[in-house]
Amino acid sequence: MDSVLSPLDLTAREAPEGPVAIARPHRVAAAATWFRENFPGDVFYAVKANPSPWALDALWHAGIKNFDVASDAEAHLIHSRFPGAQIAFMHPVKSRRAIARAFHDYGVKTFALDSEDELDKILAETNGAKDLTLVVRFEVSGDGSAYPLARKFGVSAADAPALLRKTRQVSEEMLGVSFHVGSQCMRPDAYRTAMDGVNRAIVKAGVVADIVDIGGGFPAIYPGMSPPPMIEYVNAIKAGFEEMFVAQNAKLWAEPGRALVAEAGSTVTRVELRKGDALYLNDGAFGTLFDATHLNWAFPAKLLRETPSRAKLAPFRLYGPTCDSMDAAAGPFMLPADIQEGDLIEIGSLGAYGTAMGTRFNGFGDTVTIESKDSPWPSMYGEATGAVVAMPKRKRAPKKQPSQG
Ligand SMILES: *Cc1c(COP(=O)(O)O)cnc(C)c1O
């Protein structure tokens, strides 16, 4: 791993057939440090965003020791790599075997649920363990997010009080509440609104919650999507937490995925053919460009050449290497007009849900990973880093209506 070489030098040296994933562990460290300094609670990394060893190690070394997993494989990955890690199994629907293995083999004590049937499964597979932390997942609005996650998981406001009471009865240890405002959440107020809804259910149920887990959803910067500063999210969450009727010493948890790793990864892909404004690449929908194709998100792109092009920027469409017609990204991706076959393009801000989404469909999908020390993409953690804001004193004030953003 050379620090002096650029992504272009590194790619040229490897000359791989497929795309090159550029890993920037220092960007993971910057994001992790920001969260540790500014989030007034425990940070659980949502492993699905990027389970690459380099990303996990960078998080661990930056002090992230808690992990949110959703499958047996993710739990095994974290347990074997970091035996001292605290693992929370936050998928509200788990196989019985995954629950049993997590509890008996990996020492997992924290499980999410959004139904009584799942609660019964957890109790059965852990032999009625008394030391579990059970977290009730709520359905909340995904309105503030670019990728809403509502509808699939979460107990409704109507059913929540009964499930909370039932879970409290069996949970002698800790009772938590959680939600997910949707990924790439553009409105800090979405957290506060969600917390207000969860709070109503807690009050209605007459239970005491020990943990408020505000989930993931923290944004990254993409073309056309410039989120408010990250500190505004933290401030909205603090305000929401203050207004909740929870145990005096209640803990605040977060499960960021995207925000911890998005800036840390990019892909160097090669143009195999140009047809007008269409570029046919060696990476696409079934590789690291899932979101660019399926969600039609724009990502920052730049041409990598020994001698930079002086041509004007022009809009391009991208096609991936497979025969599937869905393997296409409309963009537009702004690249020099003289781009041609053989050129290398770096597509940035792909550290989250990039390599993690890849398949081997159609014989493509081999990705070489190379580490680079540069920081060429926009950052959420520039000036704000180190701006520590003290946790406000908890008060028992009556709830205010959250302001709409
Ligand atoms: C995916 C997921 C996360 C991470 O979401 P981001 O939007 O990437 O921050 C956190 N918690 C749960 C339960 C998830 O499913």
What does this structure look like?
This protein is of the alpha/beta class and 405 residues long. The chain has 2 domains: 3-21 and 264-372, Lyase, Ornithine Decarboxylase, Chain A, domain 1 (Beta Barrel), CATH 2.40.37; 25-261, TIM Barrel (Alpha-Beta Barrel). It is 28% helix and 21% strand. It has 11 helices and 18 strands. It has helices at 7-14, 25-38, 53-61, 72-81, 96-106, 116-125, 160-170, 189-205, 230-242, 258-261, 290-294; strands spanning 20-23, 42-46, 66-69, 86-89, 110-113, 133-137, 145-147, 174-178, 183-185, 211-213, 251-254, 265-275, 278-281, 301-304, 313-319, 328-336, 344-347, 368-371. β12 (265-275) and β13 form a beta hairpin. The chain binds pyridoxal-5'-phosphate. Pyridoxal-5'-phosphate (PLP) is lined by residues 46, 48-49, 68, 90, 180, 183, 215-218, 255-259, 352.
Question: Could you write a compact summary of the structure shown?
Answer:
This protein is of the alpha/beta class and 405 residues long.
